[in-house]
Amino acid sequence: MMSVLEYALDMNKDEKEVLNACEKLDIKVSSKDDMLSDDAIVELDNYFANESTDEDTSLNINQDEEIIKKMEEDDYYDEVVDTLIDKKDTIYNSEPKAKKKKNKVKNKVKNKNLKEEKKNMYKNKEKLVSNETEKDENVILYKDGMTIKDFSLELGVSPTDIIKKLMGLGVMASINASLSFDDASVLALEYNKTLKKEEALDISNFEMFEVNDDPKDLEPRPPVVTIMGHVDHGKTSLLDAIRKSSVVEGEFGGITQHIGAYQVSYKDKKITFIDTPGHAAFTEMRARGASITDIVIIIVAADDGVMPQTIEAIDHAKAAKVPIIVAINKIDKPGADPEKVKREMSEHGLTPDTWGGDTIFVPISAKTHEGIDKLLENVLLIAELEDLKANKKRYAMGTVIESKLDKHVGPVVTLLVQNGTLRLGDPVVIGEYYGKIRALKNDLGEEVTYALPSTPVSVTGITGVPTSGDKFMAFESEKQAHSVAEHRMQTAKLKANTNKTSLSLDDLFGKISDGLKEINIVLKTDVKGSEEAVKNALLKIDVEGCRLNVIRSGVGTITESDVVLANASDAIIIGFNVRPSNKLMDYAKENGVEIRLHNIIYKVVEEMESAMKGMLDPEYEEKTLGQAEIRKIYKFSKTGNIAGCYVLSGVVKMGAKARVIRDGVVVYDGAINTIQREKDQAKEVKAGFECGITLENFGDIKENDIIEAYELVEIKR
């Protein structure tokens, strides 16, 4: 809420102008100090927005109400507009002026219709279903770390009864023992109760909130599609080709804004495309809990074939567990070889449907538009098979695609509505911010009064700029939205003080006990042979019905992309004979991603099995002492090769453990044998000094190799 004077200053208007507008809109205010309700502010915003569009036109079409009526009827629309232009030909002889005038007349009609639509919306605002879950006597709330005593109090029964029932299930426990969710679920059924996790019923934690829609309220919704692929393989060209072939002629040229998503119509059905700037952005949104994509299209150039970023796209799409379509682009180019693309993609687990696999491959040309129809047909086919549905009768829920701060209107946020209907004036909470929707625009930049499921829209009226991937929810009252936003802000502050951990070996056993059936692994090794051997060994592990799933494996050192994927997929990174930089190790720690480094296969398997059984040996943390770069090699017949080194950081010590790193890959792991400073033996050499180093049983050193000295320090569990 704000006063008339505050609103006038905010909109750069005279207070009299605002009071006159209030009188026309029948808003009950009489002076500059009177308060405007949020609904009144939305009405005034739309009034002044329409007024600024109207005041340009010199055609006073209000003089003829009959013409206006006819213009609103589809059958007469174009005919009447053309007639008006013909009448003005003597004044506007040039074609551009006539066209401009025609557009102004069209805008006048659009604005008049929008005004009527808004008026009707406020008069007949339909009551939507609240997102809040009513308290159910038959639902028991499960909290993390819940003891048998806590659970018995929730059920209203004696703890002794619970212990007896657990004994019947073969579980021996005391009154203060923690109860797993699975055991508690079985016990709840014994008493005809349903068990639900606390976060599933907490509306302020709407990322985890469980929405139960009545099946009869569910209706088909458009699929949401993301296009991924290697750079220069035609992602942008394909998006443009789809948009140009699907948007009504004349509208495409009028699109001046990019809102990160758009909707097209094909065969009277809508498809929503999300334009993410890259695979990392797509995965980071997933890491924030934003599962926005229903289908992924991986685009591969027919002349280039599978490239490094194509493999990356496959990993990210598979980790998202959504249907994949492969679009083989540039089939019109000389040297195009679609069969080669199929062979290479099948090597990465995407076998074409024509070869008996389950992945649809569509040859296309984004340049000539060949195959675009076939691609869209397959998108609709998969959407039908997936049976995508949503309930438009409830308050909206969805995800932030992108956001920015506009100096004129404040925060502008692009949202994807995933369930429910978002309406002008609805109070919303987005991330940690809240507000009332003051303006709602579709992907063409047109003002609308509501948005249905799978629709991308840009909104204003929010108190801050949220982050891509943040969730949003609409509420019945602004008071409720404000309360939820405050609670979320406090929770976020608490979380900021404690690092988020995706998954660690220490808590693996507990997660398996709580029902985790699959553990995700990102594997990086020094050579292809190691990759296959370690991967096969990991896939054979099966402890208590829980198995390992290698979501990405590759040769080379661990990269930032691996950490992003592990973060999004709750995965553990295993490095075999590779050594990431200290900067990357810090990045992984910040993101709560655990990296385990090994050089013996059975040790990898042993550690994973022990973690899954809850029997880990004492853990040792590696402490890097220092790094030295080999700048010259001296050959001696008695001692072998001596590495002439410059100590880059820290300190290197005689007898310390050491590894030799060549291009990010570990080629030796052992110990420092001797250190020589000038002609004397030295116990240690600090950063900034030169020295000679020999290694135990290793002489295959090269210039520019890095010798890294380290020690192992036991960590208390």
Summarize the structure.
By secondary structure, the protein is an alpha+beta fold. It has 20 helices and 33 strands. The protein has a 6-stranded mixed beta sheet with strand order 7-8-6-9-10-11, with helices on both faces. Strands 13-14-19-17-16-20 form a 6-stranded antiparallel barrel. The chain has a 6-stranded antiparallel β-barrel with strand order 26-27-32-29-28-33.
Notes on the protein architecture:
With 717 residues, the protein is α+β, with helices and mostly antiparallel strands. 33% of the residues lie in helices and 28% in strands. Helix 7 crosses helix 8, helix 11 (279-287) runs parallel beside helix 18 and helix 17 runs parallel beside helix 20. The longest helix has 29 residues, at 95-123. It is globular and about 100 Å long.
